[in-house]
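Example 3.2
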Amino acid sequence: MNKKLLRNIRDTKKPLSLHCNAGVAIVNKVGDLAGYGTVWYYEGGIANILPLNNIKKKYCVTYDSTASDCFEVHKEDGTKRVFKPSKKGLFYLSVNNDIVLVTTIEDKINEYSVREYSNAKKARELQNIIGRPSNQDLIKSVERNMISKCPITKQDILRAEDIFGPNLGSVKGKTTHTVK
């Protein structure tokens, strides 16, 4: 899902049907991941996933459940990538330098199902597209059916606020300046 990690993103002739607890996504793009090869690219995804079975075909992989409880992928140049377990047990590698932000958002994301997170993302995207109204105004619009075929609910808007924080675009210019 991270476009920044890929090169040569392109359409594929045969799409992949990706089944998860949020439903089915049709993935019709691939890209080249440096040092790994071709991978599926789905812009709406919430994680970058590499199967351990494929990684072990390219690199030496070690795992010691007693010492460090992590998978280590040993690269040919002598470096290694360490995959640690999340609170829910899925092993991951943080590729973002902003660890505090990633951890904070990851903790919030883990409070919700994949479908709830996906709908929260849709709510925030809709809020940005229609001019960044306040959450209260957006909720009123959704509840009064003022947005044709609106796929989001009040709860999706509230989840977006909880996960991503306030929409800065909707706050800018609306706060009062107090003079001391």
